Amino acid sequence: MNALRQVAALARAGFEDYVAFEKDGVWTFAAGALASITLDATHVRARGALELDEPWSGSPCAALRDVLARLPFPEWNVYGKVHFGFAGIVPALRLQGVDAPSGELVRLMVPRTEVRISANGLSVRGEDRERVEAVLAAPAAPVPEPSPVDVRNDNGNYRDRVALAVKEIRQGQYQKVILSRVLRIPFGVDVVGTYELTRRGNTPARSFLLRLDGREAAGVSPEVIVTVDADGGVVTQPLAGTRAFGRGADEDSAARAELESNPKEIFEHAVSVRTAQEELRRVCRVESVHVGDFMGVKERGSVQHLASLVCGRLDEGRSAWDALEAVFPAVTASGIPKRESLDAIARLDEARGLYSGAVLRASHDGSLDAALVLRAIYQENGAAWLRAGAGIVADSTPDREFEETCEKLTSVAPYVVPAPDNPA
Protein backbone atom coordinates (compact mmCIF):
# COMPACT_ATOMS: atom_id res chain seq x y z
CA MET A 1 0.00 0.00 0.00
CA ASN A 2 1.17 3.54 -0.65
CA ALA A 3 1.32 6.07 2.18
CA LEU A 4 -2.18 7.47 1.59
CA ARG A 5 -3.75 4.01 1.60
CA GLN A 6 -1.80 3.12 4.75
CA VAL A 7 -3.11 6.20 6.55
CA ALA A 8 -6.66 5.37 5.48
CA ALA A 9 -6.25 1.79 6.72
CA LEU A 10 -5.02 3.00 10.12
CA ALA A 11 -7.91 5.45 10.38
CA ARG A 12 -10.34 2.59 9.79
CA ALA A 13 -8.69 0.39 12.42
CA GLY A 14 -10.84 1.50 15.36
CA PHE A 15 -8.60 3.95 17.21
CA GLU A 16 -10.87 6.08 19.39
CA ASP A 17 -9.15 9.42 18.70
CA TYR A 18 -6.61 10.16 15.97
CA VAL A 19 -5.05 12.90 13.87
CA ALA A 20 -3.33 12.22 10.55
CA PHE A 21 -1.18 15.10 9.33
CA GLU A 22 0.69 15.33 6.04
CA LYS A 23 3.57 17.72 5.39
CA ASP A 24 5.96 17.62 2.44
CA GLY A 25 5.07 14.07 1.47
CA VAL A 26 5.43 12.68 5.00
CA TRP A 27 2.35 11.44 6.85
CA THR A 28 2.11 11.12 10.62
CA PHE A 29 -0.75 9.12 12.12
CA ALA A 30 -1.14 9.95 15.82
CA ALA A 31 -3.64 7.85 17.76
CA GLY A 32 -4.90 7.37 21.29
CA ALA A 33 -4.41 9.97 24.01
CA LEU A 34 -1.76 9.65 26.69
CA ALA A 35 -2.92 13.12 27.64
CA SER A 36 -5.58 15.42 26.24
CA ILE A 37 -5.65 19.19 26.70
CA THR A 38 -8.67 21.39 26.04
CA LEU A 39 -9.26 25.11 26.34
CA ASP A 40 -12.43 27.18 26.33
CA ALA A 41 -13.08 30.84 27.05
CA THR A 42 -12.46 30.47 30.80
CA HIS A 43 -10.65 27.21 31.62
CA VAL A 44 -7.83 25.01 30.45
CA ARG A 45 -8.10 21.31 31.29
CA ALA A 46 -5.93 18.23 30.99
CA ARG A 47 -6.81 14.56 31.35
CA GLY A 48 -4.73 11.41 31.32
CA ALA A 49 -1.04 11.58 32.22
CA LEU A 50 -1.63 15.14 33.45
CA GLU A 51 -4.77 16.05 35.42
CA LEU A 52 -5.82 19.68 35.90
CA ASP A 53 -8.77 22.04 35.57
CA GLU A 54 -7.72 25.68 35.94
CA PRO A 55 -9.02 29.11 35.00
CA TRP A 56 -6.82 31.12 32.69
CA SER A 57 -6.52 34.79 31.86
CA GLY A 58 -4.44 36.93 29.54
CA SER A 59 -3.04 35.04 26.57
CA PRO A 60 -4.75 31.74 25.61
CA CYS A 61 -1.65 30.50 23.82
CA ALA A 62 0.44 31.24 26.91
CA ALA A 63 -2.03 29.16 28.92
CA LEU A 64 -1.60 26.26 26.50
CA ARG A 65 2.19 26.62 26.50
CA ASP A 66 2.29 26.57 30.30
CA VAL A 67 0.21 23.39 30.50
CA LEU A 68 2.37 21.66 27.90
CA ALA A 69 5.46 22.59 29.92
CA ARG A 70 4.00 20.56 32.80
CA LEU A 71 3.61 17.34 30.82
CA PRO A 72 5.41 14.49 32.63
CA PHE A 73 7.43 13.49 29.55
CA PRO A 74 10.93 14.70 28.63
CA GLU A 75 9.93 14.59 24.96
CA TRP A 76 6.46 14.95 23.48
CA ASN A 77 4.52 15.82 20.36
CA VAL A 78 0.96 17.13 20.39
CA TYR A 79 -1.64 17.08 17.65
CA GLY A 80 -5.01 18.75 17.54
CA LYS A 81 -7.35 21.47 16.36
CA VAL A 82 -8.13 25.13 17.01
CA HIS A 83 -11.58 26.45 16.15
CA PHE A 84 -12.09 29.78 14.41
CA GLY A 85 -13.83 31.04 17.55
CA PHE A 86 -10.45 31.03 19.28
CA ALA A 87 -10.02 34.48 17.73
CA GLY A 88 -12.69 35.71 20.12
CA ILE A 89 -10.42 35.14 23.13
CA VAL A 90 -7.21 36.57 21.64
CA PRO A 91 -6.71 39.82 23.63
CA ALA A 92 -5.89 41.96 20.58
CA LEU A 93 -9.05 40.85 18.78
CA ARG A 94 -11.73 40.71 21.46
CA LEU A 95 -14.84 42.62 20.49
CA GLN A 96 -16.40 44.89 23.10
CA GLY A 97 -19.97 44.06 23.97
CA VAL A 98 -19.76 40.60 22.38
CA ASP A 99 -20.08 37.48 24.53
CA ALA A 100 -17.05 35.21 24.70
CA PRO A 101 -17.32 32.21 22.36
CA SER A 102 -18.92 29.18 23.92
CA GLY A 103 -17.75 25.59 23.96
CA GLU A 104 -14.41 23.97 23.40
CA LEU A 105 -12.05 26.07 21.27
CA VAL A 106 -8.87 23.97 21.37
CA ARG A 107 -8.31 20.24 21.71
CA LEU A 108 -4.81 18.76 21.73
CA MET A 109 -3.57 15.26 22.45
CA VAL A 110 -0.26 13.61 23.24
CA PRO A 111 -0.66 10.33 21.32
CA ARG A 112 -0.01 6.84 22.58
CA THR A 113 1.07 5.80 19.12
CA GLU A 114 2.75 7.74 16.30
CA VAL A 115 3.24 6.19 12.89
CA ARG A 116 5.47 8.06 10.45
CA ILE A 117 5.14 7.10 6.78
CA SER A 118 7.40 8.47 4.05
CA ALA A 119 9.23 7.45 0.91
CA ASN A 120 11.99 6.16 3.20
CA GLY A 121 9.70 3.69 4.92
CA LEU A 122 7.64 3.43 8.07
CA SER A 123 8.43 3.91 11.74
CA VAL A 124 6.23 3.29 14.78
CA ARG A 125 6.65 4.94 18.15
CA GLY A 126 4.55 4.05 21.18
CA GLU A 127 2.36 1.27 22.47
CA ASP A 128 0.57 -0.24 19.47
CA ARG A 129 3.33 -1.47 17.20
CA GLU A 130 1.85 -4.96 16.74
CA ARG A 131 -1.61 -3.55 16.05
CA VAL A 132 -0.23 -1.13 13.47
CA GLU A 133 1.79 -3.84 11.76
CA ALA A 134 -1.25 -6.12 11.60
CA VAL A 135 -3.42 -3.39 10.07
CA LEU A 136 -0.86 -2.58 7.41
CA ALA A 137 -0.23 -6.26 6.61
CA ALA A 138 -3.91 -6.90 5.89
CA PRO A 139 -5.25 -6.69 2.33
CA ALA A 140 -6.13 -3.16 1.29
CA ALA A 141 -9.79 -2.18 1.24
CA PRO A 142 -11.30 -1.44 -2.17
CA VAL A 143 -10.95 2.14 -3.38
CA PRO A 144 -14.25 3.81 -2.39
CA GLU A 145 -16.78 5.15 -4.87
CA PRO A 146 -17.83 8.80 -4.53
CA SER A 147 -21.24 10.41 -4.81
CA PRO A 148 -20.49 13.98 -5.99
CA VAL A 149 -22.28 16.89 -4.32
CA ASP A 150 -23.80 19.78 -6.30
CA VAL A 151 -21.79 22.90 -5.37
CA ARG A 152 -24.21 25.40 -6.87
CA ASN A 153 -26.96 24.89 -4.30
CA ASP A 154 -27.22 28.08 -2.20
CA ASN A 155 -29.71 28.14 0.65
CA GLY A 156 -27.91 30.83 2.63
CA ASN A 157 -28.51 34.00 0.61
CA TYR A 158 -24.80 34.22 -0.07
CA ARG A 159 -25.03 36.83 -2.79
CA ASP A 160 -27.14 39.08 -0.55
CA ARG A 161 -24.57 38.86 2.22
CA VAL A 162 -21.77 39.69 -0.21
CA ALA A 163 -23.68 42.73 -1.45
CA LEU A 164 -24.13 43.96 2.13
CA ALA A 165 -20.41 43.49 2.87
CA VAL A 166 -19.45 45.44 -0.28
CA LYS A 167 -21.72 48.26 0.89
CA GLU A 168 -20.08 48.31 4.32
CA ILE A 169 -16.60 48.27 2.78
CA ARG A 170 -17.45 51.21 0.54
CA GLN A 171 -18.71 53.03 3.65
CA GLY A 172 -15.25 52.56 5.18
CA GLN A 173 -16.16 50.07 7.91
CA TYR A 174 -13.33 47.69 6.88
CA GLN A 175 -11.20 46.88 3.80
CA LYS A 176 -11.79 43.19 3.29
CA VAL A 177 -13.81 40.35 4.79
CA ILE A 178 -14.08 36.65 4.02
CA LEU A 179 -17.68 35.48 3.88
CA SER A 180 -18.47 31.79 3.56
CA ARG A 181 -21.35 29.51 2.80
CA VAL A 182 -22.21 26.06 4.13
CA LEU A 183 -23.12 23.24 1.76
CA ARG A 184 -25.00 20.60 3.71
CA ILE A 185 -24.70 17.00 2.54
CA PRO A 186 -28.00 15.10 2.61
CA PHE A 187 -26.46 11.77 3.65
CA GLY A 188 -23.98 10.33 6.11
CA VAL A 189 -20.39 10.41 4.92
CA ASP A 190 -17.43 8.05 4.97
CA VAL A 191 -14.91 10.73 6.00
CA VAL A 192 -11.90 8.44 5.62
CA GLY A 193 -12.90 7.41 2.10
CA THR A 194 -13.61 11.03 1.20
CA TYR A 195 -10.17 12.03 2.47
CA GLU A 196 -8.48 9.35 0.41
CA LEU A 197 -10.15 10.40 -2.84
CA THR A 198 -9.85 14.14 -2.12
CA ARG A 199 -6.14 13.85 -1.44
CA ARG A 200 -5.66 11.95 -4.70
CA GLY A 201 -7.33 14.82 -6.56
CA ASN A 202 -5.46 17.72 -4.92
CA THR A 203 -1.98 19.12 -4.36
CA PRO A 204 -2.20 20.68 -0.89
CA ALA A 205 0.31 22.48 1.27
CA ARG A 206 -0.85 20.19 4.10
CA SER A 207 -3.54 17.55 4.45
CA PHE A 208 -5.25 16.19 7.54
CA LEU A 209 -7.75 13.61 8.73
CA LEU A 210 -9.02 13.52 12.30
CA ARG A 211 -11.52 12.15 14.73
CA LEU A 212 -11.44 13.85 18.12
CA ASP A 213 -14.14 13.47 20.76
CA GLY A 214 -16.46 11.94 18.15
CA ARG A 215 -16.09 14.82 15.67
CA GLU A 216 -14.61 14.12 12.25
CA ALA A 217 -12.94 16.30 9.64
CA ALA A 218 -10.66 15.85 6.65
CA GLY A 219 -9.10 18.39 4.37
CA VAL A 220 -6.50 19.42 1.84
CA SER A 221 -5.21 22.69 3.24
CA PRO A 222 -4.04 25.19 0.63
CA GLU A 223 -1.81 27.11 3.06
CA VAL A 224 -0.18 27.14 6.45
CA ILE A 225 -1.24 29.67 9.06
CA VAL A 226 2.23 29.53 10.58
CA THR A 227 5.22 27.21 10.72
CA VAL A 228 7.90 27.62 13.39
CA ASP A 229 11.02 25.48 13.39
CA ALA A 230 13.06 24.44 16.42
CA ASP A 231 15.53 27.28 15.76
CA GLY A 232 12.85 29.98 15.83
CA GLY A 233 12.39 30.50 12.11
CA VAL A 234 8.81 31.57 11.34
CA VAL A 235 6.91 31.34 8.05
CA THR A 236 3.35 32.29 7.21
CA GLN A 237 1.92 31.95 3.71
CA PRO A 238 -1.03 34.18 2.85
CA LEU A 239 -2.96 33.07 -0.22
CA ALA A 240 -5.45 35.50 -1.69
CA GLY A 241 -6.75 35.80 -5.21
CA THR A 242 -8.36 32.74 -6.80
CA ARG A 243 -9.18 31.33 -10.21
CA ALA A 244 -10.29 27.89 -11.35
CA PHE A 245 -7.69 25.26 -12.25
CA GLY A 246 -7.83 21.85 -13.90
CA ARG A 247 -9.97 22.76 -16.92
CA GLY A 248 -7.29 22.15 -19.52
CA ALA A 249 -3.92 23.73 -20.32
CA ASP A 250 -5.27 26.63 -22.36
CA GLU A 251 -8.03 27.58 -19.91
CA ASP A 252 -5.70 27.21 -16.92
CA SER A 253 -3.07 29.42 -18.56
CA ALA A 254 -5.64 32.08 -19.44
CA ALA A 255 -7.04 32.00 -15.90
CA ARG A 256 -3.55 32.38 -14.46
CA ALA A 257 -2.76 35.35 -16.69
CA GLU A 258 -6.02 37.03 -15.69
CA LEU A 259 -5.34 36.29 -12.00
CA GLU A 260 -1.88 37.85 -12.16
CA SER A 261 -3.18 41.02 -13.82
CA ASN A 262 -6.55 41.51 -12.14
CA PRO A 263 -6.48 44.70 -9.99
CA LYS A 264 -9.02 43.36 -7.50
CA GLU A 265 -7.07 40.11 -6.93
CA ILE A 266 -3.71 41.91 -6.72
CA PHE A 267 -5.06 44.39 -4.17
CA GLU A 268 -6.62 41.61 -2.10
CA HIS A 269 -3.32 39.73 -2.02
CA ALA A 270 -1.11 42.76 -1.34
CA VAL A 271 -3.10 43.88 1.69
CA SER A 272 -2.98 40.33 3.06
CA VAL A 273 0.81 40.24 2.73
CA ARG A 274 1.14 43.63 4.41
CA THR A 275 -1.01 42.45 7.33
CA ALA A 276 1.06 39.26 7.71
CA GLN A 277 4.24 41.35 7.92
CA GLU A 278 2.73 43.58 10.60
CA GLU A 279 1.66 40.55 12.63
CA LEU A 280 5.04 38.82 12.50
CA ARG A 281 6.80 42.02 13.61
CA ARG A 282 4.94 41.72 16.93
CA VAL A 283 6.76 38.49 17.82
CA CYS A 284 9.82 38.43 15.55
CA ARG A 285 12.97 40.50 15.35
CA VAL A 286 11.76 43.40 13.28
CA GLU A 287 14.72 43.37 10.91
CA SER A 288 14.22 39.65 10.21
CA VAL A 289 10.72 40.00 8.74
CA HIS A 290 10.74 39.81 4.95
CA VAL A 291 8.69 38.62 1.98
CA GLY A 292 9.79 35.79 -0.27
CA ASP A 293 8.35 34.63 -3.61
CA PHE A 294 6.00 37.59 -3.73
CA MET A 295 2.81 36.96 -5.67
CA GLY A 296 3.73 33.56 -7.01
CA VAL A 297 0.97 31.20 -8.11
CA LYS A 298 0.15 27.97 -6.25
CA GLU A 299 -2.03 25.30 -7.84
CA ARG A 300 -4.31 23.66 -5.28
CA GLY A 301 -6.58 21.06 -6.86
CA SER A 302 -9.52 22.81 -8.52
CA VAL A 303 -8.16 26.33 -7.93
CA GLN A 304 -5.00 28.41 -8.29
CA HIS A 305 -4.04 31.24 -5.94
CA LEU A 306 -1.68 34.16 -5.67
CA ALA A 307 0.77 33.26 -2.88
CA SER A 308 3.63 34.83 -0.95
CA LEU A 309 5.86 33.74 1.90
CA VAL A 310 6.30 36.07 4.87
CA CYS A 311 9.22 35.02 7.05
CA GLY A 312 10.93 36.08 10.27
CA ARG A 313 12.83 34.89 13.35
CA LEU A 314 11.32 34.80 16.82
CA ASP A 315 12.38 37.58 19.15
CA GLU A 316 14.04 36.82 22.48
CA GLY A 317 11.54 35.34 24.93
CA ARG A 318 8.97 34.53 22.26
CA SER A 319 7.68 31.04 21.42
CA ALA A 320 5.89 29.27 18.60
CA TRP A 321 2.64 29.71 20.52
CA ASP A 322 3.16 33.48 20.52
CA ALA A 323 3.57 33.32 16.74
CA LEU A 324 0.33 31.36 16.38
CA GLU A 325 -1.56 33.88 18.48
CA ALA A 326 -0.08 36.77 16.50
CA VAL A 327 -1.32 35.52 13.13
CA PHE A 328 -4.54 33.74 14.15
CA PRO A 329 -6.98 33.69 12.50
CA ALA A 330 -5.33 33.63 9.09
CA VAL A 331 -5.81 36.96 7.36
CA THR A 332 -6.93 35.07 4.26
CA ALA A 333 -9.82 33.56 6.25
CA SER A 334 -10.87 36.62 8.24
CA GLY A 335 -10.20 40.04 6.70
CA ILE A 336 -8.60 43.46 7.16
CA PRO A 337 -8.50 45.00 9.71
CA LYS A 338 -9.02 41.78 11.63
CA ARG A 339 -11.07 43.13 14.51
CA GLU A 340 -13.57 44.87 12.21
CA SER A 341 -13.70 41.91 9.84
CA LEU A 342 -14.40 39.56 12.75
CA ASP A 343 -17.31 41.77 13.72
CA ALA A 344 -18.65 41.51 10.16
CA ILE A 345 -18.19 37.73 10.17
CA ALA A 346 -20.10 37.49 13.47
CA ARG A 347 -22.99 39.40 11.87
CA LEU A 348 -22.97 37.98 8.35
CA ASP A 349 -21.67 34.38 8.60
CA GLU A 350 -22.91 31.28 10.37
CA ALA A 351 -20.82 30.14 13.36
CA ARG A 352 -17.72 28.58 11.86
CA GLY A 353 -16.52 25.89 14.25
CA LEU A 354 -13.36 24.31 12.83
CA TYR A 355 -13.79 25.92 9.40
CA SER A 356 -10.95 28.45 8.86
CA GLY A 357 -9.36 27.42 12.15
CA ALA A 358 -6.28 25.21 12.36
CA VAL A 359 -5.14 21.62 12.56
CA LEU A 360 -1.71 21.58 14.12
CA ARG A 361 1.15 19.64 15.55
CA ALA A 362 3.73 20.96 18.00
CA SER A 363 6.72 19.53 19.82
CA HIS A 364 8.81 19.86 22.96
CA ASP A 365 11.64 21.30 20.81
CA GLY A 366 9.65 24.50 20.17
CA SER A 367 8.47 23.70 16.67
CA LEU A 368 4.87 24.11 15.52
CA ASP A 369 3.03 23.66 12.24
CA ALA A 370 -0.55 24.93 11.87
CA ALA A 371 -2.51 24.19 8.68
CA LEU A 372 -5.41 26.42 7.72
CA VAL A 373 -8.66 24.44 7.70
CA LEU A 374 -10.14 25.04 4.26
CA ARG A 375 -11.10 22.64 1.43
CA ALA A 376 -12.44 20.27 4.06
CA ILE A 377 -15.37 18.04 4.97
CA TYR A 378 -16.88 17.97 8.46
CA GLN A 379 -19.16 15.48 10.23
CA GLU A 380 -20.70 15.68 13.68
CA ASN A 381 -23.74 14.04 15.27
CA GLY A 382 -24.77 12.47 11.97
CA ALA A 383 -24.65 15.73 10.00
CA ALA A 384 -22.04 16.35 7.28
CA TRP A 385 -21.20 19.50 5.37
CA LEU A 386 -18.70 21.36 3.20
CA ARG A 387 -17.88 25.05 3.46
CA ALA A 388 -16.07 27.64 1.36
CA GLY A 389 -15.66 31.40 1.33
CA ALA A 390 -14.34 34.27 -0.75
CA GLY A 391 -12.52 37.50 0.02
CA ILE A 392 -14.83 40.49 -0.35
CA VAL A 393 -13.35 43.90 -1.21
CA ALA A 394 -14.83 47.11 -2.59
CA ASP A 395 -14.68 45.86 -6.20
CA SER A 396 -16.29 42.49 -5.47
CA THR A 397 -19.47 41.39 -7.21
CA PRO A 398 -21.88 38.87 -5.66
CA ASP A 399 -21.94 36.62 -8.72
CA ARG A 400 -18.14 36.41 -9.01
CA GLU A 401 -17.69 35.69 -5.29
CA PHE A 402 -20.37 32.98 -5.43
CA GLU A 403 -18.51 31.47 -8.39
CA GLU A 404 -15.29 31.51 -6.38
CA THR A 405 -16.94 29.48 -3.61
CA CYS A 406 -18.06 26.97 -6.23
CA GLU A 407 -14.50 26.68 -7.54
CA LYS A 408 -13.21 26.05 -4.02
CA LEU A 409 -15.94 23.58 -3.09
CA THR A 410 -15.00 21.59 -6.19
CA SER A 411 -11.75 20.66 -4.44
CA VAL A 412 -13.79 18.26 -2.28
CA ALA A 413 -17.36 17.95 -3.59
CA PRO A 414 -16.63 15.44 -6.42
CA TYR A 415 -14.98 13.06 -3.94
CA VAL A 416 -17.60 12.74 -1.20
CA VAL A 417 -18.10 9.08 -0.26
CA PRO A 418 -21.39 8.01 1.36
CA ALA A 419 -21.21 6.03 4.57
CA PRO A 420 -21.66 2.29 3.86
CA ASP A 421 -24.90 2.12 5.85
CA ASN A 422 -26.26 5.39 4.43
CA PRO A 423 -25.82 5.45 0.64
CA ALA A 424 -26.63 8.62 -1.27
TrEMBL record:
Name under which the protein is recorded: Salicylate synthase
Show the taxonomic lineage. Answer: Bacteria, Bacillati, Actinomycetota, Actinomycetes, Pseudonocardiales
Identify the InterPro entries for this entry: ADC_synthase, Anth_synth_I-like, Chorismate_C, Salicylate_synthase
Chorismate-utilising enzyme C-terminal domain location is 157-408
Query: Source species, please?
Result: Amycolatopsis acididurans
| Superkingdom field | Bacteria
The record ties this protein, via Pfam families, to: Chorismate_bind (PF00425)
Keywords linked to the UniProt accession: Lyase, Magnesium, Metal-binding
Q: Does the keyword Cytoplasm apply?
A: no
Q: Give cofactor(s), names only.
A: Mg(2+)
